[in-house]
Fold this sequence. Notes:
Blueprint: H1 2-9, E1 15-18, H2 22-31, E2 36-39, E3 47-48, H3 52-55, H4 73-89
Parallel strand pairs: 1-2, 2-3
Amino acid sequence: xxxxxxxxxxxxxxxxxxxxxxxxxxxxxxxxxxxxxxxxxxxxxxxxxxxxxxxxxxxxxxxxxxxxxxxxxxxxxxxxxxxxxxxxxxxxxxxxxxxx
Length: 100
């Protein structure tokens, strides 16, 4: 905890704790007065970060245990891109109404 206190003393206004045990996050958070922000560091941080691409399910192969997906855009984006490619190949996009 001395390192965290040193960072605070040197002027840090917050500390990001990433992928560390929740018990360590708790110790750090309790030992300093500046905010801690966790990303995969458990519930004891003062705030939480979750990358928007992960939150929305835009990726599918990245599966750390701290990740909670609130949507599955990967499948929907794949279908939309596939439809776009199909329409371009059929010369259906852009249509007369979609050009200047």
